[in-house]
Structures are given as C-alpha cells and as structure tokens.
Amino acid sequence: MGGERKSWRVVxxxxxxxxxxxxxxxxxxxxxSYVATPTLNTLLAKAVVGPAGETILEKPxxxxxxxxxxxxxxLLLVGWAIGGILFGRLTDRLGxxxxxxxxxxxxxxxxxxxxxxxxxxxxxxxxxxASLGIGGEWAAGASLLAEVVSERGRPLAGALLFxxxxxGMWFASKVDRFVVKGVFLNDPQGWRxxxxxxxxxxxxxxAIRIFVEEPERWKEHKAEPARLSELFAKDLRRKTLTALGVxxxxxxxxxxxxxxxxxxxxxxxxxxxxxxxxxxxLKDGGNDFFILGSVIGTLVTVPLAVTAGRKLTFALYFLxxxxxxxxxxxxxxxxxxxxxxxxxxxxxxxxxxxxxxxxGLFPFYLPELFPTRLRGTGSGFCYNTGRLVTAxxxxxxxxxxxxLGLTRAVLCAxxxxxxxxxxxxxxxxxxxxxLE
Length: 436
Hints:
By secondary structure, this protein is mainly alpha-helical. 76% of the residues lie in helices and 2% in strands. A hairpin with a 5-residue loop joins strand 1 (46-49) and strand 2.
C-alpha cells in the first residue's frame, strides 16, 4: 500500500513539474505576440526635433513593426529548435529533473531581463537566450512524465501535460489586457512589467528540483552513451524522419495560423467597424473561445489515441484543421458568404480544437518511439527541428499578407495539413506499445 502511494506521489509531482515548466515556457515564448507593439514602439523609437525645437520620440511605421515582429518570431523559432536539440541530449546525460531546472531558470531569467532592455540589440540577445531554454524544457518534461506513468495512463498524462500550453497562452493574453493595457494603460513602458513576470517560473524550478526525483528508468540507463547520429541508425531512421515530418506539419500549421490570431482578430474588428475602445473586450472573448477549444481538443486526443491509434488520430485532426481553418478564415471563398464578427470569433474555438489540440499527442507519442537512453534526444530533435522550417514559414506568411491580406494568408498556411496526410501512412504506430 505504501509503495502504491509513493507511486502516485511520484506521478503527480512529475505531472505538476512538467505542467508548470511547459505552461510558463509557452507564456514566456508567446508573450511578445501580445505586447509586440508597445515593446517595439519603445525600442525602435527615434528622437527627432519638433517644429518648436523640442525633442520628440517618433514611433516606427507599421511596415517596420511587422518586419521586426517577423524577425523576432523567427529568432525565437530558431533558438527554440537549437535549444530543443541541445537540451534534449542533455536530458539523457544529466537527468530529466536537472535539465528541467536548468531550462526553466534560463528562460525565466532571460525573459525577465527583457524588461530592462535599453535598446533592440539587448532585447534580441535576451530573447535568443530565452528561446534556448524554451526549446529545451519540452523534451525534459515529456521524458520525465512518460517514464513515471504506466503504459495505460501515459496518453492521459501526456494530454494533461499539453493543456499547459493553451493555459500559458491564456495567461499571456490576460497579462497583456489587465497589466499592460489595464494597470499601465497610459504608461508606454508597461510592457516591461509583463516581461518581468517571466521571472515567476524560477521559484517553481527550485521547488521541482527539491521534490521531484529522477525516474528509475533513466537511472538504469544514465551511463549508456547517447549520440544524435543514432537517431538515423537503421532501426530508428523511419521513426525519426516520420516523427520529424509530422511534428513539422503541426508546427508550421500552429505558427502559420495560431501565431497570427491576435492580429487577425484586430483586422476583423477594424473591418467590422468596431470602435477602438471596444476591441480589447471582443478580442479577449475571441481568445477565450480559442483557448477553450484548444483545451478540449487536447483532452479529446486521449480517447481517440487509445481506441483508434496515434496515426488515425493525427489524420482526423489534420482533416479537422483544414475544415476549421476554411470555415474561420475562408468562409467568403468557400461558402460564398462572409461570417459576422461574432461568428468568426466563435469559430476560433474550432481552430483551437484541431490546430492546437493535435499537440496533445506529442507528449506521449514521441517518447514511445525511442529507447530510454535516447528518449530526450529523439523527442527533442523531432519536436523542435521542425521549427527551423517554421521560421522560414513565418516570413512566408508576411509576404503573402502583403498580397492577399492577413486572413487569406493564414488560410493558405492551413494547406500544410495536406502534406501531413501524405506523411502519416509512413509513420510508426505506437498504440499499445511499451517504453523500450
């Protein structure tokens, strides 16, 4: 009986540790999406002489803002990919909880330093450092959880882990509305307080190191060497390449669609003639619909993956993502009529369900593909390398936006799921598999 209680304690602590690590990871990563305008208005402002000889700070134009946001998002994705690969290897060598601690301290400290940025160059360095920790945390948390949960409970634990992602995004949106645009409504430096909140995960990181033990599975294999090249050995090559392909499709879809949702909602409000003062509440409501759909979609992966298998569940979500994106962003083209603003905002719940929810599969699917000594290395490599492709895609959306408008550019991004449906038949099914 005592052993059973200890087992449950280990599982719960591991889930809480991985959940907090991933939730704050996403919060720190996506915060710039919400506070980019005031941040860049400050960091890119130029001092010019006014008509009366006074010094005036001139804000950057919209084109400069858009280009800077695209650059910073691409920087985040590249750093995310590099961090995922580096810390993925480290989690197999150093340990799951130690790596979790290091990555959380890195992204928390670097995000908080953004608040002190005197110029864009300093801000870029801080974001680059944060992105390394943001990318590295996932492999450590997913490996930790997969190795302490039973075969039967792994899908549920993995999906619960990924609910931290939409909640991290929700937290970022609330900080933007109630801290940056609320408490500091008339303070152009209010964005600094938002980044300062990035320091919060550091406190949880030390608690995780104290209370969460390394999994017994890892202890048994920690002395065994792990090389990145082994992922492409004959017995693992197919698993690695197909998992990388599926993850890349999902990442390109996420950043090509979800990454632009705050700006899409702003464009929809402008098109509908909504007064600027009324837009924050409407956008906040649309974001809540999106987050609700994301959480539900993440949890629904569990019964589907257990009964239908991992590959079929991916396929269902890819088809759903195509349909939901077409409905939300292409109703005028596909249905011949444009949805009302309210209907469009509610339709974001479907986008969240499929485009965001599909990631609920990765915390248990990727660890199932690789042996213990390569679990962090393989999971980190497959999940994060696709971000290098995604970084290019972010610029692609910017180019399409200039020609088609943002909503139609986002609709074009959903075509990536067709490629996913082509890759899936080659992927490896892990339903019912035991961790090697």
